[in-house]
Amino acid sequence: MKIFSGTSNPVLAAKIAEYLSLPLGEVEIRRFPDEEVFVKIKENIRGRDVFVVQSICRPPNENLMELLIMIDALRRASANRITAVIPYYGYARQDRKDQPRVPITAKLVANLLVAAGCNRLLTMDLHAQQIQGFFDIPVDHLYASPIIVKYLKGKHIENPVVVSPDTGAVKAAYAYSQMLDCGLAVIAKRRTGPEEVEAFSLVGDVEGRTAIMVDDMTSTCGTLTSAAALLAEHGVKEIYAAVTHAMLTDVGCQRLVDSAITELVVTDTVPSTVGKEFPVTELSVSELLGEAILRIHEDQSVTSLFRL
């Protein structure tokens, strides 16, 4: 088994390699003067089971192209099997045609990965479950919920209620409510612009309780902060937000500072972009991904990794 890392999240890749007690594979990644990507695998991988760790996060086009070129280099170096370990699967929001003449980019990315020579995919908290069906290769889809729930249980939150900040996150929020053994509330929103969201309706009993909002990703924090404002109007005592992929912009960071949210809980699937002016807890998914990689290599089941 060999573990290689792209440049999108080398810290997470190093933690995964440390968990597996393996050194990261030697690879040279650089740019030509015109910004084209050059990749050279600097060790023998013929017949090896190879895993490439790369999140398709900011800048997504650079990181995606880098991943594709790495996979092509590994395939041409006669690797036996190439598994793309993509903690954050970029372009996942474009998973359907919800208006005329738009692409389904999540499917395009799937096609590109397979065409480059990827034999298997390991990813975490996809924006939409159906993206797994875009691939004709095996997909192992993990969840960060066991790690986040373990942290939240350790805080001994009094009278909690899990809140879905929009209707798309209801299924995930329900799973969290079952694991935390508490109630569930749902917020309806409407998007008024690319970075603007308005929360306008709340279903569920939240007055005097501690709200735990859960979502798979955030960048501008429009959904979270708008939902938090509505919860505050309905008498919530305290508000926590738990997000797997936090690709926060400057606008998002400022919105958090100005919001009613007490603490943001995130994972390290993407490099942290949050400043020190807001309380953020970053949990590592390296052991979860490392254990999944080990089990895939040894042809064992990964089902037990979904349990608390």
Structural write-up:
The chain has helices at 10-19, 60-76, 105-116, 145-154, 170-180, 222-233, 250-258, 286-297; strands spanning 2-5, 27-31, 37-41, 49-53, 81-86, 120-124, 139-142, 160-164, 183-191, 197-203, 210-218, 238-246, 263-267, 280-283. It has 308 residues and is of the alpha/beta class. The chain has two domains: 2-143 and 287-306, Rossmann fold (3-Layer(aba) Sandwich), CATH 3.40.50; 145-284, Rossmann fold (3-Layer(aba) Sandwich). It has a seven-stranded mixed β-sheet with strand order 10-9-8-11-12-13-14, sandwiched between helices. A hairpin with a 5-residue loop joins β2 and β3. α2 (60-76) runs parallel beside α3 (105-116). The protein is globular and about 60 Å long. The two termini are 27 Å apart. The mean pLDDT is 92.
Q: How do the strands of the widest beta sheet line up side by side?
A: 10-9-8-11-12-13-14
Give the biggest beta sheet: 7 strands, mixed
* Rg over C-alpha atoms, rounded to the nearest angstrom: 20 Å
Number of domains: 2
Average pLDDT rating:
92
Order of helices and strands: EHEEEHEHEEHEHEEEHEHEEH
Q: At the third CATH level, what is the topology name of the largest domain?
A: Rossmann fold
Helix percentage: 25-40%
Low-confidence stretches: none
CATH class of the largest domain: Alpha Beta
Distance between the termini: 27 Å
Overall shape: it is globular
**What proportion of the residues form beta strands (DSSP E)?**
25-35%
> What's the total count of β strands?
14
Structural class designation? alpha/beta
Looking at the overall shape, the CATH architecture of the largest domain is 3-Layer(aba) Sandwich
Q: Work out the helix count.
A: 8
